[in-house]
Write a structure and sequence with these properties.
It holds the Pfam family Methyltransf_25. Keywords: Methyltransferase, Transferase. It comes from Kribbella pittospori. There is one protein chain. The protein is built from 8 helices and 7 strands, in the order αααβαβαββαβααββ. By secondary structure, the protein is of the alpha/beta class. The chain folds into 2 domains: 1-36, no CATH class; 38-158 and 195-235, 3-Layer(aba) Sandwich (Rossmann fold).
Length: 239
């Protein structure tokens, strides 16, 4: 499915009926051949937006998956870069692609770091956390950053109600809610639970100073607003 190297429909069905961790363990060898991997255009746009704010010291990719975010961290960070994920399979794939980075298996809702990083990034991970879980996630990232450290991640604008994407994402989320209501273990993956205002409020409550910048390279919607913004959440305090 998706490409000759990607997973089959049967493989995707098995993964979708697994837990999040087990599902990604199974998907890991073929993950980079699916649309779920963060596109190069987004990685490049984020790197371009962060470059004037650097250079940075140590960097961390939160929910790193197979390590696509290393493309952003490597040229921006002058010290060690680290990927954190709870899927052993995804980390194994990441290590094979980026053997010089540090890879740590951990629950990102309880990150095992304190004041260790100058830059944290994350790509496509927020949908794996229910809104009630975001405060723990953001609090952990806040603790992991040094004073003045930056947490950055892209967040797309919601599609207009008249677009096919709006109804496709709504249908996906409804399907996942039904699946999680009748099947265990849960597989948490929703596309419509990460509204920018709600994420901004949760980051502010965790102690961050938050602003957003448009990722102009990714284009604009018909109303002129950006298709995607980069959230820049700065840990308070002097570096």
């Amino acid at each position: 499915m998706f490409s000759p190297q990607g997973p089959s429909l049967r493989e995707l069905a098995i993964q979708a009926l697994s837990s999040v961790e087990r599902g990604y363990d199974l998907l890991a060898p073929k993950f980079d051949h699916t649309p779920f991997r963060t596109p190069e255009s987004i990685l490049d746009a984020v790197a371009d937006a962060l470059r004037p704010l650097g250079p940075f010291g140590r960097g961390m990719d939160v929910c790193c998956g197979t390590g696509a975010g290393m493309r952003v961290l490597q040229p921006l960070c002058q010290a060690r870069i680290t990927g954190v994920d709870f899927s052993t399979g995804m980390l194994a794939q990441a290590h094979s692609t980026h053997p010089d980075a540090e890879w740590i298996r951990a629950d990102v809702l309880a990150l095992p770091f304190a004041g260790a990083f100058d830059l944290a990034v994350s790509f496509g991970a927020l949908g794996h956390f229910l809104p009630a879980e975001r405060p723990a996630l953001f609090a952990g990232v806040y603790r992991a950053l040094r004073p003045g450290g930056l947490f950055a991640f892209p967040i797309g604008a919601p599609p207009p109600i008249t677009s096919a994407w709006y109804w496709a994402l709504l249908g996906f989320d409804l399907t996942m809610r039904v699946r999680n209501a009748v099947w265990r273990p849960r597989f948490v993956m929703y596309y419509r639970t990460c509204a920018l205002d709600a994420v901004h409020n949760d980051l502010t409550a965790a102690g961050f100073i938050v602003k957003t910048v448009p990722l102009a390279a990714l284009g604009r919607r018909e109303d002129g607003s950006p298709r995607c913004r980069l959230v820049l959440a700065r840990r308070t305090g002097t570096p």
